[in-house]
Amino acid sequence: MLEVHGGLLFWTVVTFLAVLFVLGKFVWRPLLNMLDEREAKIFKSLEDAEKAALSAKEAEHRYKETLDSGRSEAMGIVQKSKVTAEKMRDELIKEARQKAEKLLQDAEIRIETEKEKALQEIRSEAADLIIKATEAILKREVDSKDNRSLINDTLRAFEKQHEA
Description:
This protein has one domain (21-163). It is rod-shaped and about 190 Å long. Helix 1 packs antiparallel against helix 2. The protein is 94% helix and 0% strand. The chain contains 2 helices and no strands. By secondary structure, the protein is mainly α.
């Protein structure tokens, strides 16, 4: 059945130890060194990734602060613009009202002046007509019926002058 051969066992153990020595000396150390280097690279990559994530968070925070500041500034500018626009609108309305009042006053003054001129002309023409009527009456002696007809003729002549 199973027999143990001493020589074979000896050479098997010697070969195993030789392979173990060769593997330990030439393979195991370089393999461990390579694994250590890989582990160091992985840790360095993780540290770099953490630094990058922290840097990204800081950049995001600065971006949000800048964005909030920009929004606040923009809202301030819009508010100032609204206030300025309202002031300008109020000033323009005030100026327009003042100009309208001035135009109205000037028109009233012109109307009053023209009215005075017209009344003066009417008085002058009425005086001329009265003088002409009086001259006509004095040139001939007439009764009241003739007098009334003379005045009516004079008034009609006056109306015709003003219609033309």
